[in-house]
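User: Here's a chain of 218 residues. Predict its fold as tokens.
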Amino acid sequence: MSSADSILLWATSVANAWRWLAISWHVGLAVVLVAAAMRPRVSERSAAFLCVLPVTSVAAVAWMSGNPFNGTMFTLLAVVLLRAAAKLPKHVVVASASWPWFLTGAGLVGFGWLYPHFLITDTPAAYAYASPFGVLPCPTLSVIIGVMLAIGGFRSAEWNAVLTAAGVLYGWIGVFMLGVTLDVWLLGGAILLGGRVITRTRALTHRADRRAPRTAVP
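Assistant: Prediction complete.
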């Protein structure tokens, strides 16, 4: 991996050179969120495929801008998420998160949307439509993990576990290796998602054990 200074310079360069792509992703995300609010009848599988699109975009930008580490990591992430998405049912997404979880997830989505770092601008308003969502790893993962927290996640331990691992890795790199302290929000969101995965897995295991037929002891 390159030095912290070179990574920060790369991220700044990419966030500004690919501003047009970030704007496109902001428009696309706005359309999806409005559509979901007006007609929440999308299947888990379709929603998962939509979530993979910005991950693929980050991978492509990394390869084209000379960052093989991010290119490799996000290519692998996209492949694993696509595999998990293909296994999801076509059932309509049912938000199972409580209001505190929904607000936490929405806050993380907002953080990824605005992500006030790397973009060079004369007006803070530009972060609302040109921050590097869909271009750089941390804001992109923040949005996707925030969506998972807000709706209670998909019914796939593989999907949620992979997202958790990616969020923890990039949040840790951002905070402790690059000194981007605001990435603590991504790190915290990923840890919360991981906690939900563990809690849900234990609950499902306990439920399965209770339903399992008991064999009489001779």
